[in-house]
């Protein structure tokens, strides 16, 4: 009950933010981040109409994906270790956190073995935090020549996690930076990347104002997690 009420609040906030930004509500997808929450709780969100879910650990996600309806679409939002790629590729329709050329090359190779064309986003460490995964924003343009050589991975966009901040407004400049990097890749490298995955429970409204096409929202839908 609580989950479905929370979900409808989040959906209407997405709607409002999109409209205020002069965008259509359909231009923003909600990824309901179900990590740490049991299948019964996820099922409540499914019953309320949610279809796309985000998980950050492959081993945790696998039994949930098996237990829940096949119509659901699963996104991997966390760091992907290379030894989990083979298991992850058939399970997830989109991998948000591809954070190095080595990982991209490995995904491309494994995808070849499995006969898949995985969709991925490149994670960018916009704030340059030592503790975070991601491509350094200044380096990404220089990598494009190598990135376009992979023939299996479908690179659809960029993803970022801004630094923890006391107020949503603090995230704005990082969201702007991700959008501007995306625009630069399109104009200077002819490498168009339509998807921007940015914004979590506390700052998804600001992210939508700055062009997010996917928001990853956990706590605002499912409540607090016992582990993060
Ligand atoms: C956990 C997580 C989220 C969701 O965070 P909330 O603050 O609970 O909305 C979003 N993105 C990533 C990468 C996460 O790991």
Describe the overall structure.
- It is a single chain.
- The chain has 228 residues and is of the alpha/beta class.
- It has one domain: Alpha-Beta Barrel (TIM Barrel), CATH 3.20.20.
- It is built from nine helices and eight strands.
- It has an eight-stranded parallel β-sheet.
- Strand 6, helix 7 and strand 7 form a beta-alpha-beta unit.
- Helix 6 packs parallel to helix 7.
- The longest helix is centred in the N-terminal third of the chain and has 19 residues.
- The model has no long low-confidence stretch (mean pLDDT 96).
- Pyridoxal-5'-phosphate binds next to strand 8 and helix 9.
- Pyridoxal-5'-phosphate (PLP) binds next to strand 8 and helix 9.
Q: Layout of SSEs?
A:
Elements: H1 2-20, E1 29-33, H2 39-47, E2 52-55, H3 58-67, E3 73-76, H4 85-88, E4 94-98, H5 101-114, E5 119-123, H6 137-147, E6 154-159, H7 172-189, E7 195-197, H8 204-209, E8 214-217, H9 219-222
Parallel strand pairs: 1-2, 1-8, 2-3, 3-4, 4-5, 5-6, 6-7
The structure holds pyridoxal-5'-phosphate.
Pyridoxal-5'-phosphate (PLP) binds at residues 33, 35, 56, 77-78, 161, 200-201, 216-220.
Please, how many domains?
1
* CATH fold label: TIM Barrel
Strands of the widest sheet, in order across it, are: 7-6-5-4-3-2-1-8
Radius of gyration: 17 Å
- Mean pLDDT equals 96
Show unreliable segments: none
For the largest beta-sheet, the strand count, sense and barrel status come to: 8 strands, parallel
Bound molecules: pyridoxal-5'-phosphate
Number of helices: 9
Order of helices and strands: HEHEHEHEHEHEHEHEH
